[in-house]
Amino acid sequence: MVAGNRVLIVGGSSGIGFATAKLFVQQGAETTVASHDPAKLDEAVRRIGQGARARQLDIMNDESIVDFFASEGAFSHIVVTAAATETGSIRDLPLKAAYKSMDSKFWGAYRVARSAMFSKNGSLTLVSGFLSHRPDANSVLQGAINSAIEGLVRGLALEFAPVRVNAVSPGIVDTTLYHKLPKAERDQMLRRAADRLPVRRVGEADDVAAAILLLATNPFATGSVLTLDGGGTIA
Ligand SMILES: NC(=O)c1ccc[n+]([C@@H]2O[C@H](COP(=O)([O-])OP(=O)(O)OC[C@H]3O[C@@H](n4cnc5c(N)ncnc54)[C@H](OP(=O)(O)O)[C@@H]3O)[C@@H](O)[C@H]2O)c1
After folding, report:
1. pTM over 0.90
2. How far is the CA of 176 from the centre of ligand 1 (A)?
């Protein structure tokens, strides 16, 4: 369905983006993996193998994004998983860190959307997250950012039509996102999260990649936020 299509994964050097890039390549798409760290990018493309190429891009820098699309032109499907955010209670998290988090995940996606060029039957897929509807007292900002992403998706689905715009909202997914936690703490957090879920496991990046492929290719999907959380919302 996407064989031969030009696909861009912004944030494809690790986690959900990496799994998504791998899946699109397996489906025969000409896949560009973009992120900020050139060494991570090269390693990601090497691991994915033939069908993937790397391009450096900084979602915090509008000029970098404008230049990127000026030289690359249009893509059939664009996926944005890139983000670097901090968590903490709003009283403890310094305002500067809070602004930077919003600048990364929300404004980063906004900047990409603003400059993106799409070919016929194109789509844009963003990633929000469970905290928008299952808030956590220690991650209030993260929930607000995810809500903003979901609002952006619903509005852009109208503004960009007939380009389709969607988001996937994952629950806890075991990715490098949690590697800043000490291993023992991380393992315990993931085990506790798994125990609370009807599916009795946390998400894998490949689970979310499959949902992204579905949203990118289903011609009736637009303005949708697909919850993929192992049943966390109903547990
Ligand atoms: N994992 C979860 O449990 C979970 C749950 C709900 C929602 N989400 C959301 O899912 C998305 C992906 O998360 P993940 O778990 O895949 O995280 P991840 O493994 O940390 O991946 C983040 C990606 O963003 C890229 N990135 C960061 N800053 C960038 C910048 N300035 N310019 C370009 N690229 C940049 C990183 O690449 P470089 O380091 O190369 O720049 C990396 O490829 C995030 O929006 C996250 O909030 C994740």
Report:
1. yes
2. 8
